[in-house]
Design brief:
single chain; alpha/beta; 25% strand
Length: 267
Amino acid sequence: MQCNNKVVVTLNNVGMEFIVPNEKIDSLKEYFIRRMHGGIDKQRFLALDGIDLCINRGDKFGIIGPNGAGKSTLLKVISGVMKPTRGTVEVKGKIAPLLELGAGFETEFTGAENIYLNAAILGKKKEFIDQIFDEIVAYSELEDFINIPVKNYSSGMRAKLGFAIASKIDPEILVLDEVLGVGDLRFRKKSYDTMKGMIADKKTVILCTHSLESIRELTTRAIWMEEGRIVREGPSTEIAEAYEAAMQGKRRGRKHDKRFVTRRKNG
């Protein structure tokens, strides 16, 4: 761990375990029937396993790894959305988690009401939101829909509003989970440029992504995760290079296996 006296996020031996059924259960009725007749066969799934990590104030910190590596779970633990089943997490400062944009909206409330609600959850007072309300609405491009209940919004509209709120409240720690692809092409470019501006500032940014280009361009430190563990930590360019080489090696291995199987079938 690369800790200094400016540390804002500390994880010590963090683990996150889920218990999942081995077989798919299609209905509540089937669930109770199985409970009555011998129970439900379950298995334990360790999404995070022994994570030790320090993120310092002003870090531009990247997280990369394949699907199922535990990246999104780690972000949720850091953001306080999930409580780990083992270990400790300490965060100093206000976090704005851009995880599942718009997922936390109250659907019966209007877009305007959700702006105030979400900003309050992120620790901002009404007076502050009064001052930036018009900026949020304009940025979201939802002026004609802002007084309509969010239940009538498309997923893209919710994402736009969620991004507009989080990007305008000036958080101390910004947590991003593959959210730079919000909305149409023009809005995606605008949101990406906004993120670059926030990252250029002195804010602490934690970015989870599959994009090696984003890791190289937007972060300075990074970790590579697989199967809930940190495989490697270091400068972003070094981590991106090592991860890219490993993925290319795996792809060559899969191609070799396919050719071997084909030759055996043909032989």
